[in-house]
Design brief:
two-stranded antiparallel ribbon; alpha/beta; 311 residues; single chain
Length: 311
Amino acid sequence: MTDIALSPELRPLGKSPLMVSPLAWGMWRFAGDDVSAARRLVEAALAAGITFLDTADIYGPDNDEPFGASEVLLGRVLAEAPQLRDAMVLASKGGICMGVPYDSSPVYLRQAVEASLTRLGVERIDLWQIHRPDMLAHPAETAVVLDAMVAEGKIGAIGVSNHTPAQTRALAAHLESGIVSTQPEFSALALAPLEDGTFDLALEAGHAVMAWSPLGQGRLGSGDPRPGRMQAQDPRTERVIAALQAQANAYGVSVQAAAYAWIMAHPTRPIPIIGSQNPARIAEAADAFKVRWTRAEWYGVLVASKGENLP
């Protein structure tokens, strides 16, 4: 039986003309005032072949910084080294409003996109995503403003994040520009997209999948399940780490790289969003392409996560 192999080649982002790397780098923890250090992180991602960068306007408050701080920092990097802009596909997100919490009304979304463009110092955001669904927004009204901003060249393509399949379909039904991507949480510890229809819809509609928190909110980052070597974890996490570690050992990579590879092996070819702010760890992510999976090995990780055999 043929093993599942992974390719480092660029691929289209859904049905868009954007060509993206099969790994992305996320900027939730991209913070601080040191532009030189920030630039080194961006350059480390690009040097590792990670040309797909994902930020959001809400990234900042979780780091005790203002709303939009991560975008501002990236904008300062791009102002210092404008050649980096052409080397990346730039994604951002909006629609979370401090204290509201969600706003996908036409007026707010236009304000959010234009504010992000200003903070980033760019003329266009290649992929702009609604960060979380606003249950008080009619998708037809949301679609009108998104289509308008695509026509104006402010947005290259539209995606959604943390949307159910039904919410994604409802918006897509009104969008002339279409939806090219979806961004759910997915890891060997967060399996919902496998079962809630998210991946099925992606295969049906041709959506690219961007997987946030691919290390299970950091729980899969400790590795080495030998007695006394692993940080204290719950039994489920220990089982998953042990299964991933076996694969990592077989290919001479870290457990983190094996975790990324497990995600990428699904037929939707999810793009793990690497969250590390360590240049060496960013570079190490490319080791995921060394890993191959048999079906039995891939399902072994799934069984370890579920804690029971599949029917």
